């Protein structure tokens, strides 16, 4: 069965809008200029996991504890996105992508349009084998927020803001 990427992408963007999360669609060749419009210095990131796509040289992709603490923006790749929730799945990797995504005030996850899935059952089907093999991942839905102590507080357990970048790849997900 072929998933209609257009419909899935539109639902993903609607879910992100409900979370007050901006989304930027860009061709892979225009990623650097898209990031220049989004990020706030200093910026850290982790190497992107997409063939033929890399972070610009001006993004520190080998952060240390000191640069992690000083960073305002982080840029990481996401394995896939879940349209019904506007969630992104951030894989646990040896390069510290989990920490890089959580500490700075702004997180910019990057994923391909073809890596969008329509709903949570599809996401669990896709993520299940990774988890059964001992892997882990974060399902991030919008900025960090808590109301544990009364009023809503953003950034209590993660980034205060998120801006998703979708790489246009012209492929469909099956």
Automatic annotation (TrEMBL):
InterPro entries the UniProt entry points to: FTHF_cligase-like_sf, LUD_dom, NagB/RpiA_transferase-like
Signal peptide from the UniProt entry: none
Superkingdom per UniProt: Archaea
Domain annotation LUD: ranges: 68-167
The protein's name in its UniProt record: LUD domain-containing protein
